[in-house]
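Problem: given the chain below (230 residues), write out its structure.
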Amino acid sequence: MRTKLTLPKVNDNRHKPENLELEKIGEIHNAATNTLHINDEIDSWFGISADDVKNALSELDDSQPLRVVIDSPGGSVYEAISIHNQIAEWPSEVTTHVSSLAASAASFIAMVGDKRTIADNAEFMIHNAWTIAAGNAVDFRAFAGMLEKIDSNLADMYERKSNLSREEVVNLLNGEEGSDGTYLNAQEALDAGFMTEVIDTSRKDRKESKNKPRLMRAKMKLFAIDTNGK
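Solution.
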């Protein structure tokens, strides 16, 4: 699967047909748990936009910690930077959690958290920005310069929160020859410092704790039977 960081369209809505109705997902926040959900592509036309996040955050309690749950293949780089920066302004503690995939533009939204958790079966993916463009040689040189500036900005964001050197971050963004960036599993993302904790999804501890009282009652019953000679 290829994911992308797209350059923004100039005046996005200017070229949007008036009769084009794109289906938006439902509520992306849960006021009861003070949770924001980034669970779609990131884009101003469809999926989740910076305005969607702005509206959702206004419905949450900024005196309480914020939890941001991410399951997204990425999308528009500038929409995602706006989302990142809105969350960065949250006055209380922020925890970002990667529930399945934080790829491309979604991955640097994940970096905004004070605590950054990832499910043990989830993935984290980073790469350089890319776009689809048309024009002459002058235009393409300008596009290349813009992409290089975006890549440098992204490297800054990853480097600040990771355990990696600038060179190591750039190598991950570049990916191995013939690949588009780098996919990391949960443990690799933790080791790199992108994440601060891996969450066990097996529910093993909960099952064990649930079964212990039953086992205790069973032993007590057997002991009572034995001592009474019945």
